[in-house]
Amino acid sequence: MKKSYLSRRQFLQVSAMAGGALALAACAPAGTPAGSGSEETAAGGDAAPAAEGATVSYWAGWGQLEAAINAMLETDEWKSHMEGLTLEYRGSVNSEAILTAVAGGTPPDCHSNHDYPNLYTRGAVLPVQDMIESSDIVNKDMMLQWTWDYAFFGGDMIGVPGIESYVQWGLNYNIDAAEKAELDVENPPATWAELMEWHKALTTKDDAGNLIQLGLDPNDAMGGDVDFQTSSYGIKWYDEDTREFHLDDERMADIIATTSEFIKYAGPDQFAGMRQVQGNGAWGAAFEAGVQTMIIEGYWHPGETMIAKPEIGQYNRATWSPVSEDRRDVKMQAVNAHFVQIFKEAKNPTGAFRLGEWFNTVTACDIIFKEVGWIHPVKEFIPMIDPNAFPGLDFYVQSEQDATEWHLLRRCPIHWFVKDQWDALRDQVAREEITPDEAAAQLNQRALDEWDAQGLSS
């Protein structure tokens, strides 16, 4: 099955919903569609009617989950747990579709892989702590501590943890490309300066100056995330307790300058042209295409790459992500969590919660790992993971024990706004239109303005 790369946490960077609706019955043969979905609207479409309470509608930002959903429907455990409920599933649903549905009062019952904190601060979703108190499946002791802790914002548990929630940072590199560039694959870069040397060795152009191969895209995947780049320089850009921003900082200017050099070396126009080639601009796709040879990504990268492009995945290796020179000995790792988040206007919140419970079963975890390469840290499931199942996964599993510094990600309600502004300003720095200091100051001011515009100051 062709993977959709509209998926990986890029919902704010796309403008139309891809993919259709799959109405999947727990009692029907797996994968049997109840409607075409291809002509339905982004905000919900005309779904086939069902008896009240018999359907659970679930939208996900990911495009990769469909294979796992289909496999789950074949199991007796699914049929027993869902008790005959029909699952109406849509994949590759972007944020515009979600926000349009919320604004129109027609959201699905639940969703995953969209901006959880933002939807919570908008008052669009239900806290679930009371539901979880009565659950026989989901509780604090059955999952790794960070996943449970991450679910709480402002004293509320904003969703049922599930689907995938594991370690988030690692430098992945293509050892075949690195060896051809005469780099020492057993001694990967530890700092941004060392990474730049690898970037230069791995970036090649044709006689016309077009990019043939790129070392690292500093905008791509987890490496392009505002949380990662600031943390690599020891910056806490947003304080969740005080709700203050710290983006106008000398170290911010340093990391903006550092990462813009990767774009400068490739050539801003050539870099932009490479990203505009069909598929290369999507999350992680340039690595899978063999165009990009390094990527800072989460634990899911080895499995996703091996499943989608085994000819590339076989050469994947992972190590610690780069840091500033003064933090050379820091081994950073990060976590967040994904949820089944239940909308306040859900028609079937009880069924939605039941779906959230399902994703915390060992059966669901095992299917998702095998079909997609994702890990949800249910304690009973973790020992079942083969760290050698996919090239590079062993680093991530071991990093849980070896990391010396941990970070919780994406706690700011305007995280994705700041990320978009960060990318735009870095491009201006790479083109020498503004200085790194100016970029940091503008980024801080834009964050403050957006915070006020969303009514978050009160």
Domain count: the total is: 2
Q: How many helices?
A: 19
CATH architect. name of the largest domain: 3-Layer(aba) Sandwich
Q: What's the mean pLDDT score?
A: 89
Quaternary state of the chains = single chain
Distance between the termini: 48 Å
Q: Can you tell me the CATH class of the largest domain?
A: Alpha Beta
Structural class: alpha/beta
The portion of residues assigned to helices is: 25-40%
Say how many strands there are.
17
Main sheet overview: 6 strands, mixed
Which key features would you list for this structure?
458 residues, alpha/beta, D-Maltodextrin-Binding Protein, domain 2, 6-stranded mixed beta sheet, 5-stranded mixed beta sheet, 19 helices, 17 strands
Overview in brief:
The chain has 458 residues and is α/β, with parallel strands linked by helices. It contains 19 helices and 17 strands.
List the helices and strands and how they pair.
Blueprint: E1 21-25, E2 55-60, H1 66-73, H2 76-82, E3 86-90, H3 95-103, E4 110-112, H4 116-121, H5 129-133, H6 145-150, E5 152-153, E6 156-157, E7 160-161, E8 171-174, H7 175-180, H8 192-202, E9 204-205, E10 211-216, H9 226-232, E11 238-239, E12 244-245, H10 250-266, H11 268-276, H12 285-288, E13 292-296, H13 300-308, H14 310-313, E14 316-319, E15 332-335, E16 339-342, H15 349-358, H16 362-372, H17 393-402, E17 405-408, H18 415-430, H19 436-453
Parallel strand pairs: 2-3, 2-4, 10-13, 15-17
Antiparallel strand pairs: 1-3, 4-16, 5-6, 7-16, 8-13, 8-14, 9-10, 11-12
Helix pairs in contact: 1-16, 8-10, 10-11, 10-18, 10-19, 18-19
